[in-house]
Amino acid sequence: MKKKVMIVVIIVLILLFPFFKNTFKKYMAPDKVLVVGHHISDHAFTFTKEIKDQKKIAEYENLFNQIKFSRGECDEDTYPDIILQINHKTGIFTHPLHIWMKGDEGIALIWTLEEPEIGKLSSSQVETLKRIIQ
After folding, report:
1. How many domains does the chain have?
2. Considering the entire predicted model, what is its pTM?
3. According to the model, what pLDDT value does residue 37 have?
4. How far is the C-alpha of 44 from the C-alpha of 80, rounded, in Å?
5. Can you give the residue range of the structural domain that contains 119?
């Protein structure tokens, strides 16, 4: 009798494990995750790294707010070197930020609903960005 009860308990725990795992993961996930990626084709990109450190994410947001964007066309012929995006726990995410490295400086492009917006990154901003994503 004890063996049957023990077997039933083990089976029930095995069946409930995915439910508990997903529930735990949902509540323990950070509020924001900074994802880093690159282009894989003309219209697709993939994210290969997640940064969950909230201090680094706050530093990235501060860096993003310092970039002066203006409307215009991007004349880059190659794919960007880095693509960054913040994913929120609730499923909301920011527009991807495309960055081309040009020596010590960088060019940033973000697509909005109207037109793409272009900004320039100084050498100190590029160094800060590199430190954040490493």
Report:
1. 2
2. 0.72
3. 92
4. 12
5. 31-133
